[in-house]
Amino acid sequence: MSVVIDNIGQLVTNDASAGEGPLGIVRDASVVIDDDVVVSVGRRGQVADERIDVHGACVLPGFVDSHTHLVFAGDRSEEFTARMAGRPYDGGGIRVTTTATRSASDDELRDLTDGRLAEAHRAGTTTIEIKSGYGLTVADEARLVSLARERTSETTFLGAHIVPPEYEGRVDDYVALVCGEMLVGAAASGARWIDAFCEIGAFDADQCRAVLDAGRRAGLGLRLHANQLHHGPGVQLAVEMHCASVDHCTYLGDDDIDALAASETVATLLPATDFSTRQPYPDARRLIDAGATVALASNCNPGSSYTTSMSFCIALAVREMHMTIEEAVAAATIGGAGALQRDDVGCLKPGSKGHAIVVDAPSYHHLAYRPGVPLIRTTIGPLGGVRPVG
Ligand code: NIG
Predict the structure, then answer these.
(1) Domains along the chain with CATH numbers
(2) Residues 6 or more apart from 86 whose CB is under 8 A from it?
(3) Which residue has the least CA distance to atom 12 on ligand 1?
């Protein structure tokens, strides 16, 4: 059964050949979707079996959130409160969430994850990546990947998130476990990507290289958390290893910006994290001006960024990181798609997924202009591509 979204005042296609400017804007438009796929983008008045009249509203591709840690149990609001009183974020709370997550049942984790997915879907996200990383045993990492796989095809194995307490002082033994038995279990449970946290207090560049190498040999795509809390070797490593994405990029040197600009690795910026951890924001302006490809993602997790709102990330990127509204909207849609090496989402053109959001506003500018206001009137399309939620 086909459906037409009709009477669109301003349509963002992210297809520069279809309309004005880099966002490919089409005015007075309609989009026909058949069986979850866009079949035609044209002027208003196209026909289909069913019609959704949006009365002049703005329509965009659904948001592509390429970095989340949605499968977890427990609460860390006290850690946030302490941080607001001056205690710095250091990633140590990952162990608190690991303890709570290990003791939660599969059904408890499913319910918690579904609640967060429903929230993200209401806020306009139609494609989402979900990492493991709060299990940190062979069985628990396989369990978290498998629970994530029930809800999205973009699943990431993050066994190298932090060294669990039982391996304290034996980091190399833990890395060997991650690269061996734990990776086998995660891959068998449906992981598409492998990731590691390259940071002081987590894993160094050699350990991350070993993890990424093992993941590549197991057939997984590569991504890396890097330069979140300090300047370090992570961005260079991600470029050297041809990672699809290097995430955070809060502390960058000139060499990092040059390396990213000359690479195909997407710099995924997570401004809600820098907001919640009271850190400086990444230098998006220099990255973009140098020619790097930039994505925005929520990094939804209980420690450093407990939000599912991509609109909030857009508003921060514009206000705090000096991205233009067009750059921020692109980074939250087609930029995220690039970070996941997908060309079927993040845009609205014939052949792409018919995943769209109707914004209660005449233009996409309102996403940055009206921060904190729930402007997403309707989200069209399932979240995750496996089973609709919300
Ligand atoms: O991306 N940096 C590592 N992982 C998460 C934080 C996880 C946590 O604090 O629970 C991040 O910020």
Answers:
(1) 2-61+346-380 (2.30.40.10), 63-339 (3.20.20.140)
(2) none
(3) 304
Pocket mutation for ligand 1, best pick of 249, 273, 304 (most atoms within 8 Å of C-beta)? 304
pLDDT at position 385, please?
A: 42
pLDDT of residue 389: 37
Predicted local distance difference test score (pLDDT) of residue 388: 39
**Residue 302 Cβ < 6 Å to ligand 1:** yes
Q: Which residues of the chain have pLDDT under 50?
A: 384-390
The whole-number pLDDT of residue 382 equals 81
For a mutational test of ligand 1's pocket, the pick from 72, 79, 116, 225, i.e. the residue with the most ligand atoms closer than 8 A to its C-beta, is 225
CA 298 to centroid of ligand 1, rounded, Å: 11
pLDDT tens, position by position, 227-276: 999 999 999 999 999 999 999 999 999 999 999 999 999 999 999 999 99
